[in-house]
Amino acid sequence: LYGCYENLVGGHLSDALQDVSGGVAETVNVAKFLLNGAAASSHLLFNNLKEAFDNEALIVAAIAVVLFAVDRFISAKTKDEIEQTLDCGLVKGHAYAVTAVRYVELDAKTNSFRFHLPCFSVQLLKTPLVSLSLQLHVNLFRNPHFSPLLGQHARIRMIRLQNPWGEKEWNGPWSDNSKEWEQVTESQKTSLGITVDEDGEFWMPWNSFIRYFTDISLCQMFNTSIFSRSKRYHEEIFYGEWTTNGAKSGAPNDFAGGCLNFSATFCNNPQYLFNVSEPGEVMLALTQKEPNEGVKRRDPYVTIGIHVMKVEENRVHRVHQAMAPAGTSDYASARSVFLHLRDVPAGRYIALPTTFAPREQSVFMLRIYSEHKIYPRVLLKHAPSKGIFGCRQVNSITRVTIVAVFLEQTKEVNAYCILQTGKDKVRTSSIKGRNQVSWNEQFIFHRASTSRDFSLELWDDCLLTRDKLISRTSFTAPVDNDTREVQLKLTDTYGKSVGNLRLILATFDDPMYL
Prior knowledge:
Domain Calpain catalytic: 1-222
Active site: 94, 163
GO biological process, one term: proteolysis
Keywords: Hydrolase, Protease, Thiol protease
Distance between the termini: 42 Å
Organism: Angiostrongylus cantonensis
Oligomer: single chain
Number of strands: 26
Mean pLDDT: 83
Number of domains: 3
């Protein structure tokens, strides 16, 4: 794989984990993850790491040799400093295996009010009993380990690491022989494997961990077995290539368009469509081939990333303009990048594996994992080759966005729309509301004429009885190479006004414009 042993020196932790396991590798930059709200992001990162560890992921943490970590800057200028031991006992540029991620229960009996005595003052002790009780209550809630349900002290987030050298352990709070362990019962110490041996394995409080460690590499092996009782994921694997095919930049057969910064060519990248029928997780792992696999010389990787966008509910051809983003991975000059989308709303999506710059060429593998079947497939065709009846060339395109309906009634409805033109018929999702129901759902139509008529029906989705027709209307979408908003007046079958429907129409005479 690497040609010679010399090429094994250095490299990325995530690559090593992927080589020995065949799993899906991901690297998390701690400082970058914590940028958007340190407290909330720290809690999310801990839970993500705990979930991955509970699912038997391989996890390794490291302190970068040039390090900016929350409130300190540590740099390594020489080779000797790369594996320098810090005052806290940790080693820079060193990989630590994560061997446990868990909450540690604290013993309320041995950990009493003594940790809050500094909060008391002479003036406080002279206050009436009621006021004293109130201030005591406030001071308790200031304690980060306090839980009003579980008692004064509940639990602390902890992580256990192992130094492969078997020595030089963490010597800060919660190290092997620190006084903090007096807050934990003997039975818990036994279950946690607390020893004072210099065995290279030690516990750290989570806040100290994210203060010092800069990078976390995970390698997850998603359960795809149909015979397993544990949580199962659906896996799809695609092999593709970023290639220009010898064509000019932006040509239809150019599949190396670069990242979203290059808007003119971005959609020339390979495209993979998938459908999300119910909200859930979708994970995408992009791996590029080693430039000189099996050769002694190692060349740098191409910078790669993944972009996912939400598209029209009925799209079956390639997209030609970037649409609403659903998620973007970090771009990295690495073998693999990973994108984890959580609580993805129902709808249709397109994933684009890309290089950072246009016209960079490489071979890749794309793996997609999901909780539910999403039926991904590669998109190759740019537009239908013929019209509806197979005798006329498609020469225009229309996008209809059903935005919202504004009703005059106050009764709650479970509304949906049916949109039809010729033989094409589509339906929005059912959404409950009273005076207003918003969809913001888009639909795409190719056609071979300069104008097209649409019929639109608004229905109330009745779960136990037949659906009720609220209104029926129609409109025309001429090819005017423009995007415009349309307000349709709605009436019932007796001609009585029931409200208004808001649409956005985009029509162009180039079937590959949208």
